[in-house]
Input
Amino acid sequence: MPDYRLRPFEWSDVPAITAIYKHYVHNSVATFDLEAPGESHMAEKFGHMQALGHPIVMAEGDDGALLGYSYASVYRPRPAYRFTCENSVYCAPAAQGRGLGSAMMTEIIAQSRAFGFKQMIAVITAEGTGSIRLHEKLGFRHIGRHEALGFKFDRWLDIVHMQLAL
Output
């Protein structure tokens, strides 16, 4: 039995979301941000997604601590892309390897279908083999690779694009 529950976003999640994301900015190539955004930026971002009704899923531990978050939102702002979303999933470092990513993504996929999205795009740093495996397990297929697209930690990084028809 899992020691966490999935639930919707709450405004009180913003500090923990910000801290989780900050870890990935400073310690990984999972994101190409070079500076971690503050709480006001993250509140604006999540508030915008919430106002649009886009899927946001939080993973909360039995002790009430936020263990991770996932969302699906605008892939590109042009109107022709309105049925396509891009997903993101982040687990707190201490919560990795517990099935949270898979559970959150399964729920995000279901909520994205219910919302009316027709395609989901994952943009993953090629070094993110765990994320790539997670997306493969959930039925995403590889649709492309961009070489040396980003530069972080003094090296060039490739990007893998994956897609799931919803």
